[in-house]
């Protein structure tokens, strides 16, 4: 037997495992199983002891047969565990299922993926053939225009960004020493999660959150809840319509540049360069595309997601270097933590 036909160690064809291909092709259904479970609050109900098909169907106004199939799908995904007692199926939440209860950060991500993200990715073919995002085709608006006008999607997107940003704060704190900084501006800072984390860690800092006007109320509320009204403020604006806040010695772009085309990124960076003093710093937080796909980098998949949603892209370190140089910056250092998927790029005004 040649090694091109079968591996004795795995019992799988070395030419490929068709079951794995089938699982990949069926992943769309898994996305919707989990999304529907969250939409119907299945995990919460089961956690509260409402654990039979009939009882859950009554609470969520669903067809018992259809709901029963959904519950078995959740058991197959190991989010629920199925038990049969005296001919009645009962369910309980597994440790894996607990990760999508209310208040868990994954819940918002899955809800967004299952709703607007799912609809966008379904038109990946259009994006691949045209090179254009599909949001205007599906929703009649660009990604951010849609977030501005649809309150449900906006709340979900903001919750996702807040959850992702909480994971990012430690990356920035580990990468950069803010001892010499006085005023930090977080550009596209959403409701202030990043900046409030930095201010907590560095009591000497002052901060400005710059983002879309639709976020102003939520951001001011976050700042007030954190007790930072005297050190932090929100300034509404748009990268392409208003002048960004001047006078800071450190600007942050966290998971922002991947939303935009190269030309738009250069416009944003040029505006920052105009506002930044010669001794200032720009910190960019992004996932980095590998030079060669190795099956480990989530940035490769996110790159496709940006194609269909905003028209932006993930980039390699070299590509970010080129953008920075085109806008009057030099890439001083790149910080990569072994336990984080994100990199922090420190840029300084070009000496030339």
Structure characterization notes:
Helix 4 (53-60) packs across helix 5 and helix 10 (151-175) packs parallel to helix 11. This protein has helices at residues 18-25, 27-39, 42-47, 53-60, 64-76, 105-121, 124-130, 135-139, 143-149, 151-175, 193-201, 216-225, 262-275, 299-309, 317-326; strands spanning 80-85, 88-93, 183-187, 206-211, 232-236, 250-254, 281-287, 329-336, 342-349. The chain is globular. With 352 residues, the chain is of the alpha/beta class. The longest helix is centred in the middle third of the chain and has 25 residues, at 151-175. The termini are far apart. It contains 15 helices and 9 strands. The chain is 46% helix and 16% strand.
Write a concise keyword list for the protein shown above.
352 residues, alpha/beta, 15 helices, 9 strands, globular
Short description:
The chain has 352 residues and is of the alpha/beta class. It is 46% helix and 16% strand.
List the helices and strands and how they pair.
Layout: H1 18-25, H2 27-39, H3 42-47, H4 53-60, H5 64-76, E1 80-85, E2 88-93, H6 105-121, H7 124-130, H8 135-139, H9 143-149, H10 151-175, E3 183-187, H11 193-201, E4 206-211, H12 216-225, E5 232-236, E6 250-254, H13 262-275, E7 281-287, H14 299-309, H15 317-326, E8 329-336, E9 342-349
Parallel strand pairs: 3-4, 3-6, 4-5, 6-7
Antiparallel strand pairs: 1-2, 7-9, 8-9
